[in-house]
Design a protein that fits this description.
Elements (H helix, E strand, L loop, with lengths): L4 E5 L3 H10 L4 E5 L2 H10 L4 E5 L10 H13 L5 E5 L3 H10 L4 E4 L4 H26 L14 H13 L6 E4 L6 H10 L8 E5 L5 H9 E2 L11 E2 L1 H4 L4 E5 L6 H13 L1 E2 L8 E2 L3 E6 L3 H6 L5 H7 L2 E4 L9 H16 L6 E2 L1 H9 L5 H15 L4 E2 L9 H9 L15 H19 L4 H8 L3 H10 L3 H5 L23
Parallel strand pairs: 1-2, 1-3, 3-4, 4-5, 6-13, 6-14, 7-10, 10-13, 15-16
Antiparallel strand pairs: 8-9, 11-12
The chain binds adenosine-5'-triphosphate and magnesium ion.
């Protein structure tokens, strides 16, 4: 389930079927024409694409294939595209490479060669993403896919790193979008089970009637419609990791059956008689207060006890201090590169809005808002409006139902200078609060240099009482406040 996605753009159904079984290490997504390819490239976020040049309506020629290549290069510039064609191979290969294709494979393809080319393209892509991540994060976290500079979250990552090497059951507790699944995968991928399967099952998404056979599998004839034997997810995870997502939603009948499995690592398929023994590492996750539910008898206490060999609590994004901006900038860099846009940063209003927003959907919400903003933004800087967030100043005005109060110079809130000063002041206060008074941290949050920040504090008469919290060693020679500092191009 942690297989990389391969987008195959090909109209020949027989060939598609052949690719499906030849590329067992990949999750193959098929697109039959240019429109499907474009949709899949953005929606499915494939790691690599394989493009046949002969696509309808020009299945005999190459025009539609090249048009598709050009579109893919524009909408997903990070996606390596491997082009294949059976005609005019030299000419088409040169043209494809000139248009930014990663490689060219003649048709009919030698599958062994193609597999090697795909693996190489995947590695290149991973390296590019790794470079981006290192450029965005001040210090790399111990877990590959987790970007964080927050002490609490770094502690979670170190715990996960340590737990990866052992097989104790781990229970991940965190609000939606905090990274439960990302950490569950990390537990699998950083440990000795990485070569076997990571099998995820969402206990809330599958109807109760189907869940049992999904988990345990069934024998032929076990129930109406059971026309053949089916292997369940537990068995599929043998040697690897089973991820039980939304475990709080597991119905009581299945809680009992799962408990039996956790006690001795054996189970029976539905309708089966013999006990099957497996070696499975169980990681579970929920955003529900399981302990409280167990206390109220809504979740079995003995099951909870089996699941939480170790409980890892993932902090919500709003408690991770500078992470909102750190992750925001990382997503911005990644999304604008993959969508071929040139968004360089967030403007002051966006930062104000991002640092005050409560982020109920946590990292997932941030990622979604930034992605949408990259698509919507006109200029080089993303605004609060692009993020569909309300900057705090406007929010206050809205709540009070009147114009800007400070300065009293405007009735309709249109005095730009006053509004800007207030947003600035607001931002400074929030940044200092979040940075717990550290000037360096606040400057990083705001995306300005320390001298610029001192200048701003001076302008707002906030300079004196804050300086005391800074450690003397942190002051560099560039600390003299400059003139004319503004926050509008961060
Ligand atoms: N610290 C992080 N750094 C980078 N990406 C992250 C981080 N945390 C989460 N993500 C990304 O955010 C998205 C949501 O994370 P994930 O699916 O792991 O959350 P979840 O807790 O399982 O959410 P849900 O409760 O909605 O299922 C994923 O795309 C994940 O890769
Ligand atoms: Mg999840």
């Amino acid at each position: 389930m942690s297989k990389p996605k391969l987008l195959v753009i090909e109209d020949d159904a027989a060939l598609c079927a052949q690719y499906r079984w030849s590329f067992a290490g990949w999750r193959v997504v098929i697109a039959n024409d240019r429109a499907e390819a474009e949709a899949a490239a953005t929606r499915e976020e494939p790691a690599v694409a394989l493009l046949d040049l002969g696509l309808p309506p020009d299945a005999e020629g190459v025009s539609e294939g090249f048009a598709t290549l050009e579109r893919l290069r524009r909408i997903a510039p990070m996606l390596p595209v491997i082009v294949s064609s059976g005609q005019d191979q030299r000419e088409n290969a040169l043209r494809a490479i000139a248009l930014g294709a990663y490689d060219f494979c003649p048709k009919p393809a030698d599958l062994a060669v193609l597999r090697t080319v795909l693996d190489r393209a995947l590695r290149l892509r991973e390296l590019e993403e790794e470079n981006l991540r290192l450029a965005a994060a001040p210090r790399p976290s111990p877990v590959r896919d987790i970007v964080t500079g927050d002490d609490g979250m770094l502690k979670v990552c170190r715990t996960v790193e340590r737990l990866a090497s052992v097989s104790v059951p781990v229970l991940l507790l965190g609000d939606s979008g905090t990274g439960k699944e990302a950490l569950a995968r990390a537990l699998h991928e950083m440990g000795p089970r990485a070569k076997k399967e990571f099998v995820a099952i969402n206990c809330a998404a599958i109807p109760e009637t189907l869940l049992e056979s999904e988990l345990f599998g069934h024998e032929k004839g076990a129930f109406t419609g059971a026309v053949r034997q089916v292997i369940g997810r537990i068995e599929a995870a043998n040697g690897g990791t089973l991820f039980l997502d939304e475990i709080g939603d597991l119905p009581p009948s299945l809680q009992a059956k799962l408990l039996r499995f956790l006690q001795d690592q054996t189970f029976e398929r539905v309708g089966g008689r013999s006990a099957i023994r497996v070696d499975v590492r169980v990681v579970s996750a929920t955003n529900q207060p399981l302990e409280a539910q167990a206390g109220e008898g809504r979740f079995r206490g003995d099951l909870l006890y089996r699941l939480n060999g170790v409980t890892v609590r993932i902090p919500p994004l709003r408690e991770r201090g500078e992470d909102v901006m750190l992750l925001g900038r990382w997503f911005l860099a990644r999304e604008s590169m993959s969508l071929g846009r040139k968004n360089r940063g967030f403007d002051a209003g966006a930062i104000a809005a991002m640092t005050t927003h409560a982020w109920p959907g946590n990292v997932r919400e941030l990622q979604n808002r930034v992605r949408r903003a990259v698509l919507m933004a006109d200029g080089p800087l993303v605004t609060a409006e692009d993020l569909e967030l309300t900057p705090p100043a406007a929010a206050v005005r809205h709540a009070e139902g009147k114009g800007v109060a400070a300065g009293g110079a405007d009735e309709g809130g249109l005095d730009l200078r006053t509004a800007r000063l207030r947003v600035e002041r607001d931002l400074l206060e929030r940044a200092l609060g979040q940075a717990k008074g550290s000037i360096s941290a606040a400057a990083r949050l705001l995306g300005v240099s320390r001298p610029t920040l001192y200048g701003l504090l001076e302008t707002h008469g906030m300079a004196t009482h804050r300086h005391g919290t800074e450690t003397p060693g942190e002051h560099g020679p560039d600390d003299a406040p400059p003139h004319d500092a503004t926050l509008d191009a961060v």
